[in-house]
Amino acid sequence: MAAVTRSCRPWGSLLGLLGLVSAAAAAWDLASLRCNLGAFCECDFRPDLPGLECDLAQHLAGQHLAKALVVKALKSFVRDPAPTKPLVLSLHGWTGTGKSYVSSLLAHYLFQGGLRSPRVHHFSPVIHFPHPSHIERYKILFMEHLCLSDNLHCCLAGNAPNLWLRKDLKSWVQGNLTACGRSLFLFDEMDKMPPGLMEVLRPFLGSSWVVYGTNYRKAIFIFISNTGGEQINQVALEAWRSRRDREEILLQELEPVISRAVLDNPHHGFSHSGIMEERLLDAVVPFLPLQRHHVRHCVLNELAQLGLEPRDEVVQAVLDSTTFFPEDEQLFSSNGCKTVASRISFFL
Fold this sequence. Notes:
Blueprint: H1 14-36, H2 49-59, H3 64-78, E1 87-93, H4 99-110, E2 120-123, H5 125-128, H6 135-148, H7 152-159, H8 169-178, E3 184-187, H9 202-205, E4 220-225, H10 229-241, H11 251-263, E5 283-287, H12 292-305, H13 312-320, E6 324-325, E7 332-333, H14 340-347
Parallel strand pairs: 1-4, 1-5, 2-3, 3-4
Antiparallel strand pairs: 6-7
């Protein structure tokens, strides 16, 4: 997928542009004054929803459902000064279809520092939770990260305080999370998460003020997994065989099969967590498998990011080296657009 940029802004007329500039300047002066008077944690939260929407429209290939669901959910959440619960999205689909790309866009267009913002936290089970036998200790350290926003890898390396000796963990969590509720948590590879770990998140995902009594309802949680990808692919294949446009595929066709795939997978992070059973997810976001013309779109985007003109021989070479499935139809890319960048480098 294309690299994240800030240049994607669908400006209208000159008069509209001047109005937007004036409004932005006024908002900036107010925000700057407030931030200069103290260390407010929300100062890094600078949502640019028009930019996000434009970037998704230009660079995210073949994902009409994901675009619509993500934009709709974010608009509703960001514009609400007092949300009733955190925004919780679960992204599902085949490898290389754009799940990680969308999550990086969210960080980029919501926080001034993007993925480097101190309010954006990324979790990977392969890096952070490598030993399933240590699951109980991970739960404690994981809650520490939610509250202190420290680096979890450092915690697991032995630099964290000994939470086993703390008598009032609940009050300690409450005090630290209250310091900044406007945070983004990205959980990658949910299908490799140690079973039971995610249950510590459940109190943070609902709407009750009772749990820890904090402002956690302004947080955003994004869960990413390949689980449900095969089921999504099958629905897309059946639609193609029935001569239906992929844009006619509805969320109602995909959501039940994704949910069932998650609940039937004992290795998924949501297993035995109660998160899906209690309907704590605001949206299940499906990513459809990519066809040949979508991969071509990715190649052209990547060439543009490299500052290169489109070269038909390079585009064709990348497509010819890509494996497609099923065997008979040769319809969907087996790796989506995941290997496009490396293949372009090989053929340049």
